[in-house]
Amino acid sequence: MPATVVVGTQWGDEGKGKLTDLLAKDMRLVVRYQGGHNAGHTIVVGGESFALQLVPSGVLYPSTVPVIGNGVVVDPSVLLAECDALEARGVDTSRLVVSGNAHLIMPYHYELDRATERSLGRNKLGTTKRGIGPAYADKAARIGLRVQDLLDPKIFRQKLEVVVREKNAVLAKVYNRLALDEDEIARRYLDELAPRIAPMIGDSVGIVHDALDAGENVMLEGAQATFLDLDHGTYPYVTSSNPTAGGACVGTGVGPRDVDRVVGIAKAYITRVGAGPFPTELDGELADLLVERGHEYGTNTGRRRRPGWLDLVMLRHAVRVNSVSEIALTKLDVLSKLEVVKVCVAYDDGGRRLDRVPYHQSVLHRVVPVYEELPGWEEDLSAATSITDLPRAARDYIACIADHAGAPVSLAGVGPGREQYVHVAS
Ligand code: IMP
């Protein structure tokens, strides 16, 4: 059975947690393919809210095996704390598998993330300060420590010695920070964390292929989103991995021919956290209303998200770069009670109409959105269980999205609960 990829089509926080949870009930494996604990996926089950950072969404179903793929960066103490918190609430985490090839987030990665953001001053990226960028940088520089190194103290110490020497020199000489204690890091990772992580470490690539060969359903779950992608996002205001669907192949060891379904998650409006261009950004009363109604504050960091109208130029681009086969629309209920809803269908660049995301980012910074205005709807959508329960205007809004994006909308979320969505055949 080929795999399904779930990918964010905007700047993250599209509600991927709820969607992956919804799809996970039919999956044997749910494999996270990139990112780290910069992500925060919220799932509401029976009125109870679960905020997941590293553990894949499938953990809440007893028949699903959650896998952390090779493309993820893992802080083992965060992973263990998350498992403990889930266990305390009665969720069994014993099935969790962590790829031995995933890279470790180390204490100096946090230090460097904070130090570089500080030194960038007003040009800072607004990272989550979780050490994500520095950990991926070490991976690319081939000086990273991997999860499997926790199984071999000699190798771990050899690698650590070289890296800590270099990091301490940078921290002291470039950023005027205190040196980190190599022995203390080794003690924490090898003596405290390794014994608990070791039973989770496994051959994730083998496990995924065995499931595919056995005809089982496999989901590859992304974190962050298309426009935070290191290659396809609004660089440098991006994360340091590849959330786009191609990253799902690299981050799990599944080839493209093993993927036949790509679900692109799009929120009914847009938000972004951190700095970077945002053509449809709103301010004032309407912005406050979307933020409050949509609870648009970071799951982990608590930061207020920047809100804006839905940008269909971006969505069209995301459909292309991810080969999106269907769009799952989230938070449609948040737009209720607005007189008009606007969607951006093109950009205006000094009188020139652009139908595509410009490859030159200076252009994206200066464009003005060209909006199409649609009538809003008064009704509260939260109790809808079928497309026919939605008012005409909400259905037209969905149809307009599918039309401009070039992919069908398969479902629409009408509230945070697991069961609050309607199927759409657009
Ligand atoms: P980093 O991933 O911590 O390096 O942050 C880089 C950029 O990605 C910043 O603008 C963050 O706000 C953004 N970012 C990282 N993770 C998420 C997420 O899960 N949702 C939304 N934005 C994110």
Overview of the molecule:
- With about 425 residues, the protein is of the alpha/beta class.
- Helix content is about 35%, strand content about 20%.
- The chain contains twelve helices and 20 strands.
- The protein has helices at about 15-25, 75-90, 105-120, 130-140, 155-175, 180-195, 205-215, 245-250, 285-295, 310-320, 360-365, 390-405, and strands at about 5-10, 30, 40-45, 50, 65-70, 75, 95-100, 105, 200, 220, 260-265, 270, 305-310, 310, 325-330, 340-350, 350-355, 370-375, 410-415, 420-425.
- The strands form five sheets. A ten-stranded mixed beta sheet has the order 9-7-5-2-10-1-11-15-19-20, with helices on both faces.
- A hairpin with a 2-residue loop joins strand 3 and strand 4.
- Helix 3 crosses helix 4 (about 130-140) and helix 3 (about 105-120) runs parallel beside helix 5.
- The longest helix has 21 residues, at about 155-175.
- The chain is globular and about 65 Å long.
- The mean pLDDT is about 95.
- The structure holds inosinic acid.
- Inosinic acid (IMP) binds near residues 12 and 132.
